[in-house]
Amino acid sequence: MAFKYKFQMYKHLQANIANIYADARKAAEELNIPADIRGKFGMTGGISGCPAPLRDDIMHAGEEAGKKVIPLAGMVDQIRELVKDIYGDEYDAAPTSTCEAGLWVAFDSLFTPPNLGRGDNYRARYFAPLEKHFHHQGGYGRPFPGRYKDIIADRGTTPGELGFYGKRQNNLDTVIIPLAGAKYDVHGIKYHPCPLLTTVDAKQVYEDMKKFAQIHASMFTGITSLGYETPGYGYGEKDADGTPVLQKMYAKLANEYGVPYVIDNAWGVPGIGHNIRKSGADVIIYSMDKASGAATSGLIIGKEDIMVPIRRAMGLHGDRWGTGSSYGKAAYVTFDPGKEALATQIQALKVLRDNPEVYTKSVDDLYDVVVEEFANIHPKLKAGIIISKSYNSRAVEVNYEGTWGKGEMGLPIFSIEDMYSGTNLLQSGMAQMGVIPTVAYDGNIYISPDLATTDSKGNLLKDVMRYGVKAQIMLMEIIAKYAEIL
Questions:
Q1: 50-to-33, 266, 314 alpha-carbon distances in Å
Q2: How many degrees, rounded to 5, is the angle at CA 214 between CA 213 and CA 218?
Q3: Which of residues 327 and 220 earns the better pLDDT score?
Q4: For 100, which of 17, 20, 278, 292 is 20 to 30 Å away at the CA?
Q5: Local structure of 85: helix, strand or coil
Q6: Cβ distance 264 to 228 under 8 Å?
């Protein structure tokens, strides 16, 4: 029977997890995924918990650096030069150990009130739109208004003060702003609101945020957002140059109030992706081991004047007697990336500057595979699916919010809480099929190469990737049957 209410559908899915897993394993047998690759390849190389193998040139750069005596300040200056080659002399850079480290030092340098001086500290507030991955870019302050105090929920409270809630910085609040046009319907076995963002109205978001800026003007110190470019993340509306209008609106508001706009572009690639010159953002932060393919490390890029306090906090901006470059001990020496990581960043940036096709061709080939295979999905599901290509994230987005339409239930949407509790069946079911899953919550699936789906030169192994895409489609159909929409 069909379900009257969606929570009943999710309860039914929970009761049938074992059956869904059994059907998934059977489907994998029908696919004939070779035994020697099961459990050893996956749908994305962009997840920190299971990083992709390094390309030959990246591996060689790290190994060679490890054998040599190289002053680290000189390596940082090479990174600065490469960033300036790509973006211009008015931009600068600071490498870090991870993207999350980059967020921490950028927010503490730019958003928080000072620690020094007599008297009590004032409170500061930064704006974070209610979008996906909120626990990263939105997790550094106390949530405001109070209705969002538990927004990080299970993924933050279970480990307590040493979990996500422990990231909150000195006297800093996060003003959480829902996006105009978005939906925040409650979904999932772990039943929580899910940001569904394909219908975001960028210009109305600007008008709404301007009202918030007027309310919080005395404490307003910055804006953050993701740097992605696809409809499922709310950035489908673009200007003539292909820049997401929503990001330009954030930059416009930040400029009007004289505060910095910091972009979390963890799953992004410098040079071929988000163009900070066009969006107008002040700072953008990358996880260089995700889509860029370097060793585990982060990279902060921003306007030179904004980068001075960030580089000082990292011990990169000037020796004690006052020079323009150094490699020393400062507030965030704990975020140093190390020599081998710096060498792989340098190599990745050289290729991105000189031969970007190494990064883009695999995305083009992946897009063709995804489009070809999703042409075969059940027609009832296909009608509500949007497939988009992203060079920024080196990914193909499969968004299925549209399967929920005309008052009818669609393909089950799993919350991020499902991912953390192991009840996101679109992810946990893939593991049952011998495929390492990708990010697949909030009605959005991000598929990208590199997790044993590219060769040592970065070329897509289409046959291996096709196994993964076919498995994802079969799992979607299995879940849809148990949800009684097929």
A1: 20, 15, 27
A2: 85
A3: 220
A4: 278
A5: helix
A6: no
